[in-house]
Specification:
The complex is a heterodimer of chains A (about 325) and B (about 450). With about 325 residues, chain A is mainly alpha-helical. Helices cover about 70% and strands about 5% of the residues of chain A. In chain A, the strands form 3 sheets. In chain A, strands 1-4 form a two-stranded antiparallel ribbon. A two-stranded antiparallel sheet of chain A has the order 2-3. A two-stranded antiparallel sheet of chain A has the order 5-6. By secondary structure, chain B is α+β, with helices and mostly antiparallel strands. Chain B has helices spanning about 5-25, 35, 150-180, 190-205, 210-240, 245-265, 290-310, 315-325, 325-330, 335-360, 375-385, 390-405, 415-430, and strands at about 40-55, 55-60, 65-70, 75-80, 85-90, 100, 110-115, 120-125, 130-140, 280-285, 285-290. Classes of the chains: A mainly alpha (about 325), B alpha+beta (about 450).
Chain lengths: ~325, ~450
């Protein structure tokens, strides 16, 4: 077993692009779920807005990358209003049901044959990242850094942009939550009726929170799409939201540090488990007393089982995660 | 025992419970199904929609197409329905001569086979270069489908009634669990999958006839529901964990169970052995197999039974009382915890039954239940969250509407109208058809 390789991959995953785009998605989800108490289970749909907004610019409109952000913003607002208007006046679980359903429908629509000419069907959209590529100051062919932090020029560029966005948005969220606006949404999470009795328009604040969180999620989708150089509908399945949620709960809900460090640790653990199990089953299935436990093809499901189990155990035994405080996790939306 | 020790031992008890559930689920399929079938001979059929655009041909998979395999004398060997990637794998006993037939009536509306494509393909023994032989049917979405509008509506109506009955059966438990405990259980779809997979295990791997296996499956589904409550959610309630946190736990449970199913069963969808080969009988414009007719009738009888049970029996009345107001019910002497256990058992059993029917209707796969959960949620929201009768009515209508909607929307998007039902219900009447009006901000 190649322990050096496993450890190298694990360390580099802490700072990798996957952790960056998860951190962005988690920052967005934290605004909605952590600070406002909105159960948005459709963050993947907001991420898809960003990715497809970007993808469609070059494909159909023939305009530059910057327009992609505008298109993405428009899509996020439409989506936010679509799921928010019917549900934000109701109990918290209605939003969960509607967002998860919407995310699934968004995925089905973008991968459908009927709308293939707009969204590229199950093949998705490629070849939109040229203008982003051209902005890069690095030589795309060269390797930079030393192992385990060694990246190609393009990866380094997406990582720098990705982590810069993480820093920008986490600072903004930190400031936002210190502002009067932040105090109102936190109060909504604690006691909606009390806030309403103070004359605040709770519905409007919730909608703003949903859309602001969605916008951060949109940037997450963009970074992911730019790094992969393609937009694939199946990268925005509903489970992505739940993995982001797990990463957020791991770090600590309603804490800026939690939403950044959580995804880093999540990806570290995931890559460790994945690499370890793959090494373990590389030559022959992993066996205990001659009884086959894990085969090569079963490594994927085992990883995801562990994520599910991790989410359950975290919510039960340490809902505040690493950085959170227990008082802020007293979520009970009824 | 000091207070601190008490809470610690409780902590361990919950941790142990998680481990036991995990273990119990992994046990059920010790003879791993995933690997047994890979070495068998099989015919892989792919149905692709090919359109020529700007001189470039583009392919996209066609799902839901019925494929049957017979031997040259016409004896049925196997059949299947193409999945979302347009593929279906049909196991065959040996490398031999076979006839593969595509059921043209099962093609989605507007999709026809490309002119000159045969619907019947003969495979000779020597064509098996490996264990599997792959054949592809090409379709083009140009032609009009042959049936008249009236016939298509009639057929969709029948399909919709069948789907609606299955959704209603699956979602009664979901609604009752919500009513009695307040939990929105995202792992309910996995209870449906559990039923389908256990039925597959009994019927295909152990060779037990489905008629004998089905009651066992349903009982095991009930036990599975009880275990979920007893080992996880009852403990969470005792610890005073909030409902939203419980909801997130159920999401984690759903991810874990779904991947356990994938781990054990593999990613393919496969048919049950019994009743998988059926010839559709025509009644005027509609055609239905005896199997589907029977499952529809059984579903209807079960649903009427459930309704009668809730309306008339002592336990049924107690369930409705707890659903209405747990505190009041408890103060009138009803054992709330017992009622909650009854509800989880019944919910699990009904979901497993829905899983068996769904497995007969389509095929068995690790995602069969999680694909339905969203229709179930739409159904119970339409009917009224927490109301048992609401779940029956709402689930039925959602199934019906989804099938009818596929007359106008493409088959791949036929679940989308359920979302619109959901949104419209929440805007117009958030408490649903039969739900009680609650505070709406």
């Amino acid at each position: 077993m190649d322990f050096i390789k496993i450890i190298e991959n694990t360390i580099s995953a802490f700072f990798g692009i996957d952790a960056a785009y998860f951190a962005l998605a988690a920052i967005g989800l934290n605004i909605q779920f952590g600070y406002t108490g909105l159960l948005n289970f459709g963050q993947s749909a907001f991420m898809a807005c960003g990715a497809y907004g970007l993808g469609m610019t070059s494909q159909y409109f023939g305009v530059g990358m910057w327009w992609g952000i505008l298109i993405g913003l428009a899509l996020v607002v439409i989506l936010g209003l679509l799921v928010g208007i019917p549900t934000l006046r109701l109990r918290a679980d209605y939003l969960a049901i509607v967002t998860i359903a919407t995310a699934e429908i968004v995925r089905l629509v973008v991968r459908s044959v009927r709308f293939k000419e707009y969204f590229g069907g199950s093949d998705g959209i490629n070849s939109f990242s040229t203008s982003f590529r051209n902005l890069s100051p690095f030589d795309p062919g060269a390797q930079y850094g030393v192992r385990p932090f060694q990246y190609s020029g393009y990866s380094l560029w997406t990582m720098i942009v990705g982590w810069s966005l993480v820093i920008i948005f986490s600072s903004l969220v930190y400031l936002l939550m210190k502002s009067p606006w932040g105090r109102v949404v936190k109060a909504i999470r604690e006691d909606e009726d009390a806030v309403r009795s103070l004359g605040k328009n709770v519905y409007s604040y919730k909608m703003q929170s949903l859309i602001i969180g969605g916008v951060v999620g949109m940037f997450s989708g963009m970074i992911f799409a730019l790094d992969r150089g393609s937009v694939q509908p199946d990268n925005y399945s509903r489970d992505v939201t739940f993995y982001v949620l797990t990463a957020l709960v791991l770090g600590g809900v309603a804490k800026v540090s939690g939403s950044v460090v959580g995804p880093m640790i999540f990806w570290g653990l995931y890559v460790f488990s994945d690499n370890f199990l793959r090494e373990l089953t590389k030559d022959r299935p992993f066996e205990i007393f001659g009884f086959g436990i894990i085969q090569k093809a079963q490594v994927g499901p085992v990883n995801y089982m562990l994520i599910g189990l991790g989410l359950m155990l975290l919510m039960t035994f340490r809902p505040q995660g690493i950085f959170g405080s227990k008082e802020e996790m007293a979520l009970d939306g009824r | 025992m000091t207070e601190k020790n008490k809470s610690r031992s409780r902590t361990f008890a919950v941790a142990r419970a998680f481990a036991v559930v995990a273990g119990a689920v992994m046990m059920f399929g010790a003879p791993s199904a995933a690997n047994a079938a890979d070495s068998e001979n099989s015919i892989i059929v792919s149905v692709q929609d090919q359109t020529i655009k700007n001189g470039v041909s583009e392919k996209s998979p066609v799902s839901g197409v019925k494929i049957s395999v017979t031997n040259p004398t016409g004896l049925a060997i196997g059949e299947g329905v193409t999945d979302s990637s347009g593929l279906v794998t049909i196991s065959v006993p040996a490398k031999d001569d076979y006839v593969v037939t595509l059921d043209v009536t099962s093609l989605p509306d507007g999709v026809t086979l490309i002119e000159g494509t045969k619907t019947v393909v003969t495979i000779v023994k020597d064509a098996f270069t490996t264990n599997s032989k792959r054949i592809t049917f090409f379709a083009g979405s140009s032609g009009e489908s042959g049936a008249s509008l009236f016939d298509r509506i009639a057929q969709r109506l029948v399909d919709g009634i069948r789907l609606g009955l299955i959704i209603a059966i699956c979602s009664v438990g979901l609604s009752l669990i919500f009513g009695t405990t307040g939990l929105t259980n995202f792992a309910h779809g996995e209870m449906v999958t559990f039923g389908g997979l256990i039925a597959f295990w009994f019927n295909v791997l152990l060779g037990i006839p489905l008629l004998i296996a089905a009651p066992l499956v349903i009982a095991l589904g009930g036990v599975f529901g009880l275990a979920m409550n007893g080992m996880i959610f009852a403990k969470l309630r005792n610890r005073g964990i909030g409902l939203i946190s419980q909801l997130v736990v159920s999401v984690g449970l759903s991810i874990m169970l779904r991947n356990m199913f994938l781990y054990q069963f593999g990613g393919r969808t496969r048919p049950l052995d019994d009743f998988s080969l059926q010839v559709a009988k025509s009644f005027g414009p509609i055609s239905i197999t005896m199997r589907d007719l029977t499952t529809a009738i059984i579903s209807l009888v079960v649903l009427l039974g459930v309704a009668t049970f809730l309306q008339r029996s002592r336990t049924g009345k107690a369930i409705r009382a707890v659903s209405d107001n747990p505190a009041l019910a408890s103060s009138t002497g009803i054992d709330t915890q017992k009622i909650i256990r009854v509800v989880w058992f019944a919910g699990g059993a009904l979901a497993a039954m829905g899983g068996v029917f769904r497995g007969l209707d389509e095929q068995v796969g690790f995602e069969m239940g999680s694909g339905l959960i969203f229709l179930m949620f739409a159904g119970i929201t339409l009917g009224g969250l927490g109301s048992a009768y609401g779940a029956l009515i709402g689930g039925f209508f959602v199934g019906l509407l989804v099938e009818l909607a596929s007359l106008v929307v493409p088959a791949e998007l036929k679940n989308a109208p359920a979302l619109f039902i959901l949104i419209i219900v929440l805007v117009v009447r958030p408490q649903g058809i039969l739900g009680r009006k609650q505070r709406v901000g």
